[in-house]
Amino acid sequence: MKKIKKFLCFIMLLFINSCSTDDSASKDVEKPTISIAYSGGFPKGCDQLKRGETYVFRAMVTDNEALASYSLNLHHNFDHHTHDDQVGDCDLNESKSAVNPWIFMQNFSIEESSLEHEIEIELAIPDDIDTGDYHCAYSVTDASGWQGRTSIDIKIVQ
User: Fold this and answer.
1) What confidence tens digit (pLDDT) does each residue in 45-82 have?
2) The predicted structure's pLDDT at residue 111
3) From the centroid of its chain, how far is CA 105?
4) Residues 80-86: contacts with CB within 8 Å, 24+ apart?
5) Which of 27, 44, 101, 108 is most exposed by smallest CB count within 10 Å?
6) What is the pTM of this model?
7) In the chain, what are the domains?
């Protein structure tokens, strides 16, 4: 009798398993990409940006289904921290304490839910911020919630 019950349980499990569907084909499982490796991409690794100057930060973002938003984060790297998504290495100044660091963080929507979008953000670098090592971090999110990131070492100079 026990063998019959085990056999029936096995058959029932086999039947239930064969009835389930795999909708992974309909799910977006790819994260979006960010690139500054094109002629208009800015800044490139180790670029020196001058206080008081205005620059247009540019990156190309793409996705296989639909882009939703992106962000730009600029922050000091006076403690020489790194990011897991960092592109390249630059010579760093000596570590120092921040007195008046520049910190810029802003999120933007991509209204048209396109597959490709060029980020273009015009920023004036304040005259009174600390000079030295900084990170420029781009982030992009697609409509499914996947996120791509890249960070670039830059320097703010006089």
Assistant:
1) 999 999 999 999 999 999 999 999 999 999 999 999 88
2) 86
3) 13
4) 80/133, 83/135, 83/137, 83/149, 83/151, 85/137, 85/149, 85/150, 85/151, 86/135, 86/150, 86/151, 86/152, 86/153
5) 27
6) 0.80
7) 28-157 (2.60.40.2550)
Q: What is the pLDDT of residue 10?
A: 60
Distance CA 51, CA 129 (A): 8
pLDDT surpasses 60 at 133: yes
Give me the pLDDT at residue 113, please: 78
Q: What are the residues facing 118 on neighbouring strands?
A: 60
Say which residue the tokens 């939703």 belong to. 68
Q: What token pair was written down for 47?
A: 């670029």
Element (H, E) at 15: helix 2-19
Going by DSSP bridges, is the β-strand pair 116-124/67-76 parallel, antiparallel, or unpaired? unpaired
